[in-house]
Write the structure tokens for this entry.
Amino acid sequence: MKVSPVQPRTAQWLLALLAGSFLIDVLLTLNNGKSAIGALPGAALMGLCALLGVKQPVQGAVGASLVLLMSTAFIRLSGTQPDSISINDILLTEVAAGIALVVLVVWRMPLVTAALCTTSLVGSAVLATFFRTGKWSATSNLRALQLGLLILVGAVVIGVYLRSVSGRRTETELGALIRRQWPLAAALTLLLFIDLRIGGAPNQMFALGGAVIASVCAFFAPRAPVVLSLVATAGIALSPFVLIVGGILPGRDGSVGPVLTEIAATMALISFTVRWSPRWPAIFSSAALALATWLAFQLRILLEQRSTSSTDEFGMYMAVLFVVAVATGMYFRSRDRERTQTVRSAVSGAQQSERLALARELHDVVAHHVTGIVVQAQAAAMVSAKDPQVAVQALAKIETSGVEALKAMRFLVASMRGAKPAGTSEATEQATTDLTADLRAMIDNFSGPQVRLNLDVPQIVPQEVGRSVLRLVQESLTNVGKHALGATAAAVDVVTSEWEIHVRVADNGTGRRQDPVGGSGGYGLVGMRERVELLGGRFAAGPADPVGWQVDAWLPVREEDTT
């Protein structure tokens, strides 16, 4: 089976996890004294083997197994006393590296190879648990086996899942959730190790029932925060009663049993609920969860018949943590709302820009041809009785204009759908490549007054500039045909200076029609001004001297040198 390579970000997260675990081991070792320092080199080498396993899982797993065995022998012979918050006498870094390597070999290697590598790692871990310090304790060893089995099953499940989704082009909803929530899962797992160390007896595994339920609910909270908060509330509230029915009391070594994981999961659930849920359901479920956590702690205190001072302290801590969790949820809720508004504004702006662009194209291209059709049809109706041949010629021009209008509509529809119409190429969709020829063809096909054309343009013009020049001349001539009363001639001047192209279209009309041909939408000048300003140019339109109407536009062809 082909497996996709490990992403660099995954390797970076693994490095951060191993570095954090090693830092905790160093702090515990320094607190325990010089007798524990001898276990650190083996833990560091295990971390390096895990990093090697990112690219070479088999070599990393085999190397880690050998390092664990050699470290066990060194610890036994030197009398080192390792201090660990995880499995007996195995440092947290070694546990984290082992988990990572099991996940990597199950994920990326053939099944037989993965099974052999996993067996090697488990075997060396079992030997380390039983023989590192030579301390034989049925209670301690039973707890280590329970925890080790739980860790192994979890690592294998993660590896199998990654193996099943490897190579998929689209990320599943569960995959996205795991990618987003795994730092929380790692933090809760670390607190679980600490709780187990505090518990001090194998039956403390059962005391973690409420904490485990709350942790699972916290992991999946983004999908249904209110429902999962209520489930966690029920689990935490019932966990002390389950212990009473089973005859299992919280830790009798002066502690009140494992509560760190439970509290952390509760705070995470409250934050998720406040962030993603409606106001009143969030208030109700968060208050119920915090109350259940506090009452569960109260019941543990009563079972141990301890003083109420611990209760008062815990209540104060819970109040502070509750405020922090709610504030965190409100912060992310506000940030999400702001991001949503930003995205909506951006989408609305993009839609408005698309609408304006489409409106300009419809007005500049289609309206030009339709106006020509109307003008030619009116002229044909006026002279058809006197000169039928002129009417026939007008009908031919009407047909040509209609075909051009249909082509323009097809181009617009195709551009909106992201496809090219049949019979078109990339060149036909781009701006003009021969501005002079296109302008002359436009003037020749104009059905209104006679047009004088004056051209002085370079051979190469920026595509958007050339396209805009064509549209400006086209729209201006359309306006001459629609609005210029009594116009007998028009002039089109397109002249290039060092920095810009100056477009001027003028007519000799004696006034403006109050009821223009085909009606007036009033958007022609607006569209031309927008088109020019988008390119950084200038636009002006108004009465000419002494008569007529004049349109001027200046379009930059290159950046001015300001130095």
About this structure: Confidence is low (pLDDT under 50) at residues 251-256, 419-430. Residues 85 and 197 are 6 Å apart (CA to CA). The beta strands are 450-456, 484-485, 489-496, 500-507, 511-512, 538-543, 549-556.
